[in-house]
Design a protein that fits this description.
Chain A: Its EC number is 2.7.1.33. The complex is a heterodimer of chains A (418) and B (804). Chain A has 418 residues and is α+β, with helices and mostly antiparallel strands. Chain A has 16 helices and 16 strands. Chain A has a seven-stranded mixed β-sheet, with helices on both faces. Among the domains of chain B are: 147 residues, ATPase, nucleotide binding domain (Nucleotidyltransferase, domain 5); 124 residues, 2-Layer Sandwich (Nucleotidyltransferase, domain 5), CATH 3.30.420.40; 144 residues, no CATH class; 94 residues, no CATH class. In chain B, the strands form six sheets. In chain B, strands 7-6-3-4-5-26-17 form a seven-stranded mixed β-sheet, sandwiched between helices. The two termini of chain B are 42 Å apart. Classes of the chains: A alpha+beta (418), B alpha/beta (804).
């Protein structure tokens, strides 16, 4: 009742003030490297919308006195911050005044409203900080649960969410909701979790690896002195891994080892060429180092993911997590890895909101004490989404590679219940 | 008539195949066991096979029979002693031989070529020219595998005039692994939490298994049988990645150095652990403890540190864990895929390094929830080379029985008795490579090293030796390591010891000259306040001359080329080492923990045909992996050593030369013992009988062919003098008493077996006759277990029946 009231009240109030956005629900995924945020902005865009709420209210109200629903139309927004700069996140929240909206609502107790759904290890680590700085309590949601809930939501609710990426070709895949399960969800954050998903809330973490995004960034930072993940990714674009990787051809004097299906350009040993060459780190181009590193890690993840998919007979592998961030070469390498080891039988698929699975999942957990369902209508790409990667050859500019998915908000309706 | 002779040779399928063409019976055809002459049989035929990988060259070669002794006199006397020329025996050569294992770095391929050339392996062994003088080198073929077999084919042709015959890499790996697992007892072992356990694989239950070869890259092969296999997977994150990335990150110059660094590392400073993310808590729901690595190198993200701010040790360890763990995981997933229980890991990445093995084992154990086990092979690095070796058609090694291969660990292998060209100290075998870090550590850990010399071979710019002065004793330790990387490690104690004086020997210096300078140093040492200095000498490969291992040893006087620098001798007496106290506690570079010996092929050792289950028969009843047993026998053998040395020296006439060799033997054997005390698994699974054989081998290595020779001679004379009396005495007995006395006699004689302490005491007290008498008294009934009655009845009854 109160939540219902709050939102309506806020919507109306905002409507009168002609305010565009009203942040209502917010969830965080505080990982080892990044803080991911999902928040819902209700919209007050005219009578049509109000009617929507009303009609929904009618249809939803039913006879049950306990269930009091309304439908909100609005957008889900996605944001990320570096974990090491968590203050930026706190400031953002503060500026959006999200943390206070509970107090504004009529009749809602402070204790109930000052709770944020949060997942990821940082939900434990930074709990005190949120309490102290914002007076918010972090309600910890299980990480795996969140990942799976987020992925399930996206795969079911958002059309054009999943896509394959091979040889630079992006191809959206329409997933039949009824034929979604089981699938393998590979979440590549700092580390990698591999989860077999059998249904809503039905899943098992079957594997994982410590060689993930954190390894790429961490090792990359040490090797190239890059200051950010994006910069490192940018470097890898123009790199050539053959400079430093030992290829099959290097061992076989330029020939393929055809008997076992290894071409001369296959990597026999990542960084293997550094062994025989008498060169220091400084003598290698950071671009080449970044490229080798990226290939090594992507390929490895692709392989372990495929082996796990094989083990459980799963045809579909979805890759998510912030390591990928829509980076073409990363996706290419993972896809090639999966394709190679499965002889083309398994396909790597990617999610547009890959980095926000956990945060979305945490958001979904509002369901228990907030809304009944969240329906996505379509994706709205707010900002020019395809930054031209060739522009001026300015590949080191991290802004060029800024995540695409952060700019895609999802227009959706939220069915609220009490 | 001639072909008849071939049959006895072919009778046993387990015997190496011989070229029997031209076989002829020598001498009188009426003899029961006529001597057979095989003119096309050289007793030194050598086979050589190579595995030329991206980082290392592995070489396996086989020498038939004994390596040619230094001079014919010795060879002749051995034959006399062993009774080989005895007319009652077959006089065709003993068809035994040895398999030697050597490795070189690929970027120093010239060392490998020099080695082959010096041993004339490419010509089919030392003596080959005697038999094949008509065959020119151009027809010579060496089997080789690995990528380098393609890359360096021309170089081999040019330098050695031999053609490289390329063998498929996977074929070789599998053939090598199959051979080792079938032919060598206790080749495989598990390694969990620092504990090794040798495993005897039932030959009949060997297949299928998963073979993971971790070289520069990793190949994962499913093996279903001999020659039946499939490369099912692999990964590009392998040994080359560890070394390559490690080199870039730590500036280490060698793989071993990098490994050694990891020993002292703490990966928590750089890996992001589950606890780091969860604020010190476990993520127990999915079974991840706080110390689990969530993200390798993940901590480097948030720390505002540069590469230089991290300790190279930590980086090395983090890298090692990442790669080992990854290999273990991918291997397990592949084993699971094909339902394989056994996973064998081999390849040069592992090289007996405890932490690597532990990490891989842990990964397999973790992901399989204990249903799968990682196993390792003692000859892990030589799988490909062995396989290439197996591909020769004529060696016939493939159907060897388990008992026919005996592994020995000579100090100077594979150079025993042979002439070696090249740098006098640079040619010691790979086992020596382990010592550098030991001595390094020894000193770093504060052991009292009075001085240390480093011997640097300028021709290859590698450190080839190290002389450590510990109080009054001098140790010569040799090894091979690339460049001068080791010196960096010395910085840690450099402040305590001044060093830095370089002496340059002229390139034409002889060994004697070096010896002179060496003494000169010793003199100077007394006056200079130098605790540590480097001795640099140049050796000219061309003029280095022929120096046999033995000569070198003798010239070096009291120095000894031991594979392990010991803790300082606990006593000044021979062999009186105290048990090294450093076990545990100090992190050691255990890259050295497993020795690969020389495999002796002894085709004459047939399994006892009457055994109910020959495979399960283990004559070695005392297992030295039991710490109590090992310590006991260590004490016994150490205590016995001075006496043995006396006997050995006496057996060679007590000359100065013999004394020096005796001293050397004592030190060498003590080194073996001390090494065993430190790492009981150093020589694989070891029983007491193996240890005693090791002692015998060690004696032989220092050219003591029978330590008890003079005593035996004396005793034989004494015995022969009393024999008629004894026989008369026995003849005068009734049949039953006679049998009993004979049995007692046999038992009494056996008391000498393996030289127990009590027996040695007896021995000191009198002549053999007295001992025999005393022993007989001890042998009198009642015995603890006896079937004498049954025995007598059976024997006498048969006797009676025969008469009837």
């Amino acid at each position: 009742m109160d939540r219902n009231g709050v939102t309506e009240g806020e919507l109306e109030g905002r409507g009168m003030n002609k305010c565009v956005e009203q942040v209502s629900h917010l969830a965080l995924d505080i990982g080892g490297s990044l803080v991911k945020m999902v928040y819902f902005c209700g919209e007050n865009s005219g009578s049509e919308h109000q009617q929507g709420i009303l009609s929904s209210k009618e249809s939803c109200g039913l006879s049950n006195g306990n269930t009091n629903c309304s439908v909100l139309r609005g957008k889900l927004h996605f944001r990320k911050f570096e974990t090491s700069k968590i203050n930026e996140c706190l400031e953002f929240m503060s500026s959006k005044q999200f943390h206070r909206n509970g107090e504004d609502c009529h009749g809602a107790s402070v204790s109930e409203k000052n709770i944020i759904k949060a997942t990821g290890g940082g939900a434990f680590k930074f709990a005190d900080l949120f309490k102290e700085k914002l007076g918010m309590t972090l309600d910890k949601v299980d990480e795996m649960n969140s990942l799976v809930a987020g992925a399930n939501f996206l795969l079911k609710a958002a059309s054009l969410e999943a896509y394959t990426y091979m040889d630079g070709q992006k191809e959206y895949v329409q997933i039949d909701q009824n034929d979604l399960y089981p699938y393998l969800l590979v979440n590549i954050g700092s580390g990698v979790s591999m989860i077999k998903v059998d249904g809503d809330g039905k899943f098992e973490r079957v594997s994982g690896t410590s060689v993930g995004g954190g390894t790429f960034w961490g090792l990359g930072k040490l090797l190239t002195k890059c200051k950010s993940f994006d910069e490192l990714l940018g470097l890898s674009y123009s790199g050539n891994n053959r400079v430093i990787d030992m290829l099959v051809g290097d061992i076989y004097g330029g020939m393929d080892y055809s008997k076992i299906g290894l071409s001369s350009t296959a990597i026999a040993s990542s960084f293997g060429k550094a062994v025989s060459e008498d060169k220091d780190l400084e003598e290698y181009k950071p671009e080449d180092v970044a490229r080798s590193l990226l290939r090594m890690i992507s390929n490895n993840i692709g392989q372990i993911a495929y082996l796990n998919a094989l083990r459980f007979g799963l045809k579909r592998i979805f890759f998510g997590g912030f390591f990928i961030r829509g980076h073409a070469y990363t996706m290419d390498t993972i896809s090639v890895g999966v394709n190679f080891w499965s002889n083309g039988e398994a396909k790597a698929m990617f999610l547009r909101h890959e980095g926000f699975l956990g945060a979305l999942g945490a958001f979904m957990s509002h369901r228990k004490d907030g809304f009944a369902d969240l329906k996505a209508h379509h994706l709205v790409e707010q900002v020019p989404t395809k930054p031209s990667r060739n522009a001026g050859g300015c590949l080191n500019n991290s802004s060029v590679l800024k995540d695409v998915n952060e700019n895609i908000s999802i227009e959706c309706t939220m069915q609220l219940s009490n | 008539m001639a072909p008849i002779g071939g049959n006895p040779i072919h009778r046993s399928s387990s015997r190496p195949q011989l070229d029997v063409s031209g076989a002829a019976i020598q001498g009188n055809f009426e003899e029961r066991d006529p001597t057979i002459l095989l003119p096309n049989q050289s007793d030194d035929i050598s086979h050589l096979a190579l595995d030329i990988g991206g980082s290392l060259i592995k070489l396996v070669y086989f020498s038939r029979h004994e390596d040619r002794p230094v001079n014919d006199r010795i060879k002749k006397t051995i034959k006399e002693r062993l009774g080989i020329s005895n007319g009652n025996r077959r006089s065709y050569p003993v068809l035994g031989g040895r398999l030697h294992f050597v490795k070189f770095e690929t970027n120093k391929i010239n060392q490998c070529l020099d080695f082959i050339s010096s041993k004339q392996l490419h010509c089919g062994g030392m003596d080959a020219h005697l038999w094949h003088s008509g065959v020119s080198n151009e027809n010579a073929v060496i089997k080789a595998t690995g990528g380098g077999a393609y890359k360096y084919a021309d170089l081999f042709k040019e330098r050695l005039g031999v053609s490289i015959e390329k063998e498929d890499e996977m074929n070789c790996l599998v053939a090598g692994a199959n051979f080792l697992l079938k032919a060598i007892r206790h080749e495989a072992f598990t390694h969990m939490e620092g504990h090794k356990a040798f495993v005897q694989i039932d030959q009949n239950d060997l297949f299928p298994y998963l073979l993971v070869n971790v070289g520069s890259g990793v190949s994962i092969i499913k093996v279903d049988g001999d020659g039946k296999f499939e490369r099912v997977s692999g990964t590009n994150v392998g040994g080359g990645t560890y070394w390559g990335l490690g080199k870039l990150l730590t500036k280490c110059n060698s793989f071993d150095e990098l490994l050694e660094l990891s020993q002292r590392g703490d990966n928590r400073t750089i890996d992001m652990l589950v606890g780091d993310i969860y604020g010190g808590m476990d993520y127990s729901k999915i079974g991840l403890s706080a110390s689990t690595i969530a993200s390798s190198f993940g901590k480097a993200i948030s720390d505002n540190k540069d590469l230089e701010d991290y300790r190279p040790e930590d980086i090395s360890l983090s890298l090692l864990r990442m790669i080992s763990y990854n290999i273990g995981q991918i291997s397990y997933l592949n084993a699971l895929r094909f339902g394989l229980k056994r996973i064998f890991f081999g390849g040069f990445f592992i090289r007996g390094h405890a932490y690597t093995m532990d990490t891989i084992s842990f990964a397999v154990q973790f992901w399989s929830k204990g249903t799968s086990q990682a196993m390792f092979l003692r000859h892990e690095g030589f799988l490909g080379a062995l396989g290439a070796f197996m591909s020769y058609e004529k060696h016939g090694l493939d159907d060897l029985m388990v008992h026919q291969l005996v592994e020995r660990f000579p100090m100077g292998a594979p150079y025993i008795g042979g002439n070696v060209h090249g740098p006098p100290l640079g040619d010691l075998n790979e086992k020596a490579s382990v010592c550098c870090m030991k001595s390094d550590l020894l000193i770093r850990n504060g052991l009292p090293a009075s001085a240390m010399f480093f011997v640097i071979d300028l021709s290859s710019l590698s450190v080839t030796g190290c002389l450590v002065f510990l109080d009054v004793s001098l140790w010569l330790v040799t090894w091979k390591t690339t460049n001068f990387s080791l010196f960096r490690n010395l910085d840690g104690f450099g402040s305590k010891h001044a060093y830095g004086i370089f002496f340059l020997f002229s390139s034409f210096s002889t060994v004697f000259l070096q010896q002179y300078y060496f003494l000169f140093f010793l003199e100077q040492m007394k006056t200079w306040d130098l605790k540590l200095m480097f001795m640099v000498y140049c050796t000219c490969v061309g003029f280095g001359g022929y120096i046999s291992w033995m000569e070198k040893f003798i010239l070096k006087g009291t120095e000894i080329t031991a594979p392990v620098p010991m803790a300082p001798p606990g006593t000044t007496g021979l062999g009186g080492f105290e048990v090294p106290s450093s076990r545990g506690g100090i992190l050691r570079p255990d890259a050295s923990k497993l020795n690969v010996g020389v495999l002796h092929l002894v085709p004459t050792l047939e399994v006892f045909p009457l055994l109910a289950d020959p495979k399960m028969y283990e004559p070695n009843t005392i297992d030295l992996s039991n710490p109590g047993e090992l310590e006991y026998w260590f004490t016994v053998l150490s205590g016995h050593l001075p006496d043995l040395v006396d006997k050995a020296v006496a057996s060679e006439g007590g000359t100065d030369d013999a004394k020096r060799r005796g001293d050397a033997f004592a030190r060498a054997f003590s080194a073996h013992l001390a090494r065993l005390m430190e790492e009981p698994a150093a020589y694989g699974k070891l029983g007491l009988a193996n240890l005693l054989e090791l002692r015998e081998e060690c004696l032989r290595e220092f050219h003591f062919f029978d330590a008890y020779r003079s005593i035996k001679q004396r005793e034989n004379e004494a015995s022969l003098a009393v024999l008629p009396d004894l026989l008369m005495e026995i003849d005068s007995m009734d049949e039953e008493t006679r049998l009993l006395k004979l049995v007692e006699g046999v038992l009494a004689a056996n008391i000498f077996d393996w030289g127990s302490r009590a027996c040695v005491d007896l021995y000191h007290k009198g002549t053999i006759i007295e001992i025999y008498r005393m022993s007989r008294n001890k042998m009198q009934r009642p015995w603890q277990a006896s079937i004498m009655k049954t025995f007598l009845q059976k024997l006498l009854k048969i006797d009676i029946e025969d008469i009837q």
